[in-house]
Every structure is written in structure tokens, then in C-alpha cells.
Design goal:
Layout lengths: L1 H18 L2 E2 L9 H15 L3 H13 L31 H12 L8 H15 L8 E2 L21 H9 L5 H7 L7 E3 L4 H4 L10 H12 L9 E3 L11 H7 L6 H8 L4 H9 L1 H15 L26
Helix pairs in contact: 2-4, 2-5, 3-5, 7-13, 10-12, 12-13
Amino acid sequence: MRLKIAFLVLLFILPLASAQLRVGFYRRSCPRAESIVKATVARRFRTDKSIPAALLRMHFHDCFVRGCDASILIDSTRKSQSEKDAGPNFSVRGFDLIDEAKRNVEAVCRRTVSCADIITLATRDAMALAGGPSYAVPTGRRDGVVSNPDEVNLPGPSLTVSQSFQFFKAKNMTMDDMATLLGAHSVGVAHCSFFLDRISGPQPDRTMDPALAKKLSNICGAASARNPDPTAFLDQGTSFTMDNQFYKEIRMKRGVMKIDQELANDRLSSGFVSRYALNSTLFRTRFAQAMVKMGRIEVLVGKAGEIRQNCRAFNPRRRF
């Protein structure tokens, strides 16, 4: 009976914590916070058009482990490893951009703006620069004080739609949310090791367009000592633009990773793919909504967690 009551209390607390996020959280405590992050992202975007994809991936990988608490930013030490050391996070990048944004914000407002909020704001701003929707982001997250590589369990590129959905369902996300968030692949790349099994071997994947398979084979076949695992764009049409072209591509059997193509083929998700392929406005609206929803996953608010001074390290413990 006590266990049941505790579970019911937890179900009540989780949405309550999420509800404490609000648009304009730093309006009084650090009114320039959002503009500082935006300017930092804009400077990087001028020289690196791939940064939106990097930040989208970082944000997803952070939120789907311990919630959106910036635990992915912590560096490992000689005494303990962090989430960065987990296999799925080896290729996550953009940490230096978050560091720069944090330094710029700290110069104006010390120990006020969380690293978790900076990830969320920077991702929104980068996506808008890539042609995606611009929308209001609720803030007020606190930074986590745990980062454990053993807790990193993320959906892989070779899963079926049903298998992938179990990860999203566990975070209170719907099938529509999953189909929408995978639209982030509109601006991403994948290493050959993530899809090589689809284009090589005795039985290549026949759900892939032969012309695309040949193109990918040429890319992966150019592997060298300097570049042992080449990359290919996930959206062959508008590779650096956040739009609905990704959905059009996978409807034409031009999905690079298995999960992308499965999204268009599986009856559980194909309806969403068709709607987004035909209606760019609908996709933009739903993508913004899904990003806001993802950004609320298991957040720390109030006095929970901390506001890190350095995004790569937990604050020193006070001794009394």
C-alpha cells in the first residue's frame, strides 16, 4: 500500500516540477541571458552550418538519460567517468559552444543561468538559423549532480519503430512526438558504421532506393586511415536546412538509417510521415511543440540540483 501511495505521489510531482518551467524565467534575474546565448550561437553558425544538428543531438541525448539536466556536459575525472564516456555519446559535439555561451552569460549574471537551460536555448536558436521554427522556450531548469555512463541507454539506428517507441513512451512521449522529433535528421549526418549493413553483404536492404545505396557505397568505400568511418547526410535533398524534405525522402525509399526508413514503412508511423511530407507548416508547428515537450522531461527545478559555475564540472561541495 505504501509503495502504491509513493508511486501516485511521484506521478503528481513529475508534472508539477515540469510546470514550474516558464517562458521568461530570467526576465528579472538575467534579462540578457537569452540574447547572449542567441548571439553566441549565431557567431558559430556563420562558420559552421552543421552546428544545429550537433546541438539537436546533444539536447536529445541529454534529456533521454536523466532528463534535461546537462549531465551530458560533465567531463570524466580520474576518479569517475561521466556520460561522455558512454558509446552513444562519443560523437556528440558542440560542448565548446555551450562553454562559450556559459562564459558569456556568467560575465553578466554569475551563477544564475543553468547549463541545462543554455543547451535548450542554444538548440532552439541554432534550429531557427537553419530555417526551422522559432518559438518561446520555457526555462528554469537546474543542473544535475549525477553523470553516470552506465545510465546511458538510447534508441539505436537499427531498431524497429515499435522498439524505438518504447524509449519515447518511457519518457511520456507519443508516437507522433517520436515521428516528429526524428525529423531532426533533416540536418544530420550518420557514420557509415550506422548503416553499412543496409548496403553491403550478401543481402542488401531492398527497402533502400538503389541509386542511394550506390551513392552511399561510394562514400563508405572511400574510407581511409585518416577517415575510417565516413559520414553521409541523412537528408539528401536539403542537408543543412531544417524543413520537411526528410519526410519526402524517406517516402521515396531514401532513408539512410534503418529507423528512418522504417518510419515511413511502418503502419504505426507512416501516417505522420505522409502528413509532414505534404504539409511543411504542420511539421514546423509540431516540431516546435515536440521540442518544448522533450525539454520538460524529468527537469530539476526550485532548489533541486544546482546552477553550475562550469558546465563541465559539478560545483565544489561546501564543507561546514
